[in-house]
Amino acid sequence: MWNETKSLALSKLCVKLFMALLIGFGVSAPFWLRSLLAFYSELGLETFYACFLMTIYACCVPAALLLYHLYRLLNNIGLDQIFNAENVRHLRVISWCCIAAGLVCLISGLYYLPWLLLAVAAAFIGLILRVVKNVVQLAVVLKDENDYTI
User: Fold this and answer.
1) Tally of CA atoms within 13 A in the half-sphere of 143 that contains its CB
2) Residues near 27 by beta carbon (within 8 Å), at least 6 away in sequence
3) pLDDT in tens, 36-82
4) 42 DSSP 8-state letter
5) What pLDDT band is residue 19 in, cutting at 50, 70 and 90?
6) What is residue 87's predicted lDDT score, i.e. its pLDDT?
7) Number of domains into which the chain is organized
8) Residue 84: CA count within 13 A, CB half-sphere
């Protein structure tokens, strides 16, 4: 039977998998990017190789930070520490990582328009996470008030 423990374990496994994929993606980026741009040579994007590479690496930094904080958040949830200031901080960092990646993609839209789609998606996810962070932050306040009530 599927339960919360298995769901949490699956989430943590997925975060670890994404961490490994991010590392592999970052290490192999120069090789697969050159091949990809050569495959689509009719678009004339080879001249933007360095720009694409800078965008990819600039997005890897917030992605790595996001995955770290997401894993820490999942660990806290596994320890039944849900409504606390540390989780609010994790959610805040995760949302700012999405917004940072969105800004990188927004700037990258100057040389390749499809980056703008990723910018909008990242910013939207960042906004949703800010709302969730605010809800959890209010829940922490309510929990603290309830804990101090006799």
Assistant:
1) 11
2) none
3) 888 888 878 888 999 999 999 999 999 999 999 999 999 999 999 99
4) G
5) very high
6) 97
7) 1
8) 11
- CA geometry: angle 40, 41, 44, nearest 5 deg: 110
**3-class DSSP state of 91:** helix
Structural domain that includes position 36: 4-147
Tokens of 8: 């949490």
Region of 83 please: left (phi>0), alpha (psi -120 to 50) or beta.
beta
Mean pLDDT of all residues in the chain? 94
Joined tokens for residue 125? 């996810």
Q: How far is CA 67 from CA 26, 42, 57, 104, in A?
A: 14, 36, 15, 18
Instruction: Please give the structure tokens belonging to residue 67.
Output: 């995955």
Long-range contacts of 58-64 (CB under 8 A, 24+ apart): 58/104, 59/101, 59/104, 59/105, 60/22, 60/25, 60/26, 61/100, 62/96, 62/97, 62/98, 62/100, 62/101, 62/104, 63/22, 63/97, 63/101, 64/19, 64/22
- The letter for the amino acid at 69 is H
> Amino acid letter at 86?
E
Q: How many residues can be counted in the chain? A: 150
Q: What is the pLDDT of residue 150?
A: 61
Tell me the chain's radius of gyration from C-alpha atoms.
Answer: 19
